[in-house]
Structures are given as C-alpha cells and as structure tokens.
Amino acid sequence: MARISQETIDRIRHASDILDVISQYVNLKKRGRNYFGLCPFHHERTPSFSVAPEKEIYHCFGCGAGGSVFNFIMEHENLSFVEAVQQLGRRYGIEVELTGDSGTKRLFTQLYEIHEIAANLYQKNLFSDRGNAALEYLINRGLSDKTIKTFRVGFAHGSWDYLTETVRGKGFTREAIDKSGLFGKGKQGPVDRFRSRIMFPIMNRSSKVIAFGGRVFESDDPAKYMNSPETPLYHKSEVFYGYHKTAPDVRSENAAVLVEGYMDFLQMYQGGIQNVLAVSGTAFTDRHALQIGKITQKVYLTYDGDEAGKKAALRAGYSLLQNSIDALIVSVPENLDPDDWMRKDGVKTVQEGISGALPLLKYHLQVTDAKNLPAVERSNLVKEILAELAEIRDSIIRDDLLQTLANELKINEQELIRKLKEAASRKRLPPPDEPTSTQTNLFTTVAQKAQVEILTTLVSSFSEVKQLVKDHLDLMSEPLLNKAASLFLEYDVDSTAVILEQFEDKIERDKIASILMVEQNIDDPQSVIQECLITLKAQPIKDKIEQARLKIRELEAAGQDTNDIVLEERQLHKQLLLIYQTNK
Ligand SMILES: [Zn+2]
C-alpha cells in the first residue's frame, strides 16, 4: 500500500482546520465547546453530528460515525485514507509524496495512463474517417457534438490490435496491461477486448477514466453492451456513470434521476435533466444505495418500459428503501427506454413523467393490479412485499409503508404487522428496529467501564498519567481499548485525531471516536486512574468469589462437604482486601 509520511499527514491536518473542512458539507452551529449539525451520514431532523475543533475529531451521536478530518473526507467522498490526505493536501497547497510500496503506486499510475490513452484513441477515431458511420449514428440519435465531447464518447473499430499497438513500447508492465481489463488473451499475447463498439468512458469522481462501456456497432456480436470487468480501478457496484458531472446537481436538488444506460444518461443530461445518474455495467446493488445515499435522500427510478425494466426498478427501489432512501418509480411508456422517450416526446413530457412518479409501493401495487388479483395471487404478492419490508430498518419508513399496504388492499394493519414479524424471522434477521446505532451500550460491564475511563483520562490528562497507564497496560483486557491506549502511549501524543487515523476498521474507529468525544474535566487524574486500576485488579477475584459462592450453595443443596471451597473463598477475600489496602 502506498504510504504518506506521518509528518505530511500532520502538516495537512493542521493546515486544514476540521471546522473549515466539514463546514463545507454541513451547516454547523456552536453549542458549548463543540459544533453541531445534521449528520451527512444518516438521515435525521435534529442535529446529532458534532465536531470538536480542539480535539480535531467529529462524532455522530445518532449513527456513531466518527474520526478525524481525513476520515470525514474518506467517508464522504468514498476515498481511501491516502486519497483523502492527497485531496486535502491539494486544497491547502501541501505537496504529498508517496513512500513505501512503489509497485502499487506504479500499477495505479499505469492503469490510469492506459485508460487515458484508450479514451483519447477512441475519441480520435470517432472523429476520423473510420469512425464516420458511428459518429453519424450518434448524431442521428440526437447527441450533440458538445455532449459527445463532454463525455468523451469514442469508437473502437474492428481491429484486434488497435489499442494493443498504441500502448506497446510505452513502458507499461505486463501486470498493468493484464489488470486494465482492456485486453483479452490472444495466442501471441494481448489483443483488444473492445472491437466494433461505440465507447463510453466511465470516470471516477476526479474525472479520470477508470473503465469503458461499449455498445456494439456494425458487428454481429450478440452482446449489445459490453463493459470493462472488475479491475483495481473499477468496482462496478460502487460506480455511477456520469457522477463526476452531475453529483453537484443531485446534491443541490436533493434528488437523483436514475437510469440504466449510457444513452439514457446522455440524452437526459443534454435535455437539461442534470441530476441524472446511471448504474453502469451491473444491476443496482445495496452498495449503490449506500453511495447514492451520501448525496441524496430521494431517487427517481427511470428504467426501461418493458417487463425486465419494471422488475429491475422494483428491485432497485426496495434496495433504496432498505437503506432509508425514498424511491419513486417513473412510468416510462411501454417498450420505450428513457433515451427513446426523450427523443419521441421531448424533455418536457419526460419531466412531467418524473414529477408524476409514484412512490415505490404504490407503483408496485398498481403495476401488479393488486386490487383486482384473485385472493391467492394477492396473498402471494403481499407476502412478497412483506419480505421486502421486513428488511427495512427504519421503523418510520416501514410503518408508513405498512399503513399504505393496509389501506390500499383493505387489510387489517395488525394482521400485517404479525405477518411482517413472521417474514422477518424467516429471514433470520434481527427484528426490525430503530436505525442502527453503533454506539449504544458498547462497554457495559464494570471492568469495561473502568477501561473506558482510563482511556478518556489518558486523553484529557496525558502527561500526568501516561506512565501510570503504561505500567498497567496489561490490565486493559478489552482488545479495542487496549489498542487505543497503546497507540496513545506509542505515539506519545494527546492528539485524538492522530490516534483515530490508525484505526483502519470503520466500526472500531467509530467506537473509539464516541469514547474520545466525551468531555472530561478531571481534578486529580492520577487518583482516577488508580481507582480504575483497583477495579480492574479486583474484578477477576470478585468473579471467582461469586463462582465459589455458587459452588457452595450447590454443594450444600446436595448435602455435600463444603469445607475446601469455603476456605478458598476466604483466601480470595483476603486477596481482595490486600488489593484495596495496598493501593490506598
Ligand atoms: Zn450520523
């Protein structure tokens, strides 16, 4: 993995004031020492997302998300740690040099380069003689020169070595060629994967080409669309085609119009529907829902007007609802796709269609003509719907849908709730509950609480207690708390942000952030630690005493001799007393 030196990370963290950075995404208001706003990571109406500028960390009391300024950028923009540091580095004019594993860095650099070369080549070809027919086709389909150039649409003609020859001799490693997904294996080495296809470059958030979708053109290849396979750059279920252009519009309108095809996307974008996104090269997944949920809470599914399109829209819609995103389905005319529809009826009609979109469940009931179904089929449909609703975690959304279902089909709501519980237990899911909170009742036992207190005291009074904690680190038996305390001691700093950045696992980081967010004003930190240490030393003995007592009761009930165990219990009591006395 590519690495950045700790010095550079620290420099950038200091240059980029966490309040300044997060304020660009969240409207923050001061309350006490900290700032609060609506959480960008979960849907809420009252602010529970807080930023502690002195500690340089954030934490959401609602969903538990937490971390440093880099973690915020990572989560918000879906970047790796290194990319987040680079992004802020660029913003604050600090050069970021990667050290460590240069092989990985080189691979990624080369993969981007190969894609850039390919995109340029394909586009050049589209505007050359050999691409004439393809260009004409696109223009006949209503795409303007500007749209074609903005989205870098291109053309791969029929040859097997067109791209292969272009990248040859440019110093690319065999690994980069193989992993780019742009080449197939021929008898004499790599050959072009994409041939006789109109090429749609798929770009990441930074507008870099990471993959291609190719539509067959003047060839009898049965695959109408072919896409790049999964590669180190391209993770299909996390990518939306066009995101780099339209994400700001999706955010500002707090709604996305979701389509399935490249041409659908381009036609709508060109027509002025600028909050459009397309899934690329795969069906809609829960990961897509998570991604889109970061920029909007409402999605208009505008899928093809055939049976397959309707089914896919329903599936995507339930996935969105299950991730607390409002899903509405646009009724695209029978057997048209959104691209055809735009050309046939014009943008105004399509826009009206979007505003007239039906909430998912209503659409589902309408498209299946649920009210008029024979009883058995209706019952099956209800079961099918309940199975989907059972996976919705947000109880407000779920109850609302249950009510709709009850009203529309005139079914008793209590009966539906009972059936929903059945459906939930069949799926062996935890019973539908409030939105998941990662921070409730994390550490509940006496010993766990003592360790949490050691950690918070260590943070607030680092220099006073570090030696004391260091000497008794082995008493911290909770792996996560031990790791956090060890990191503080190892880095010899009281910067909570630095420590949080060491947790690569998001769940772990969130948990630690929730602990570190607690404000502490401690008069005598040393004695606080001492108290906690006594608790930790005493706890195992207390447990043993408890066990001994149970054993004694058991033996007495069975009429057996208890002498030995009674002696043992007394010994334990003496040990306990000793702990309390020597630590006074
Ligand atoms: Zn939250």
Short description:
The chain is of the alpha+beta class and 584 residues long. The chain contains 25 helices and 19 strands.
Strand residue content: 5-15%
Q: Number of DSSP strands?
A: 19
Tell me which ligands are bound: zinc ion
Query: Which strand order do you get reading across the main beta sheet?
Result: 14-16-15-17-18-19
Structural class: alpha+beta
Largest sheet: 6 strands, mixed
| Cα shape | globular
Q: Using only CA atoms, what is the Rg?
A: 30 Å
> N- to C-terminal separation?
49 Å
Uncertain spans, ≥5 residues at pLDDT below 50?
428-441
- Helix fraction, binned, reads 40-55%
Number of domains: 4
The number of helical runs is 25
Calculate the mean pLDDT score and round it.
87
Q: Would you write up a description of this structure?
A:
The longest helix has 33 residues. It contains 25 helices and 19 strands. The protein is α+β, with helices and mostly antiparallel strands and 584 residues long. It is globular and about 95 Å long. Helix content is 53%, strand content 12%. α16 packs across α18. The strands form 5 sheets. Strands 14-16-15-17-18-19 form a 6-stranded mixed beta sheet, sandwiched between helices. It folds into 4 domains: 99 residues, DNA Primase, Chain A, CATH 3.90.580.10; 134 residues, DNA primase DNAg catalytic core, N-terminal domain; 59 residues, no CATH class; 146 residues.
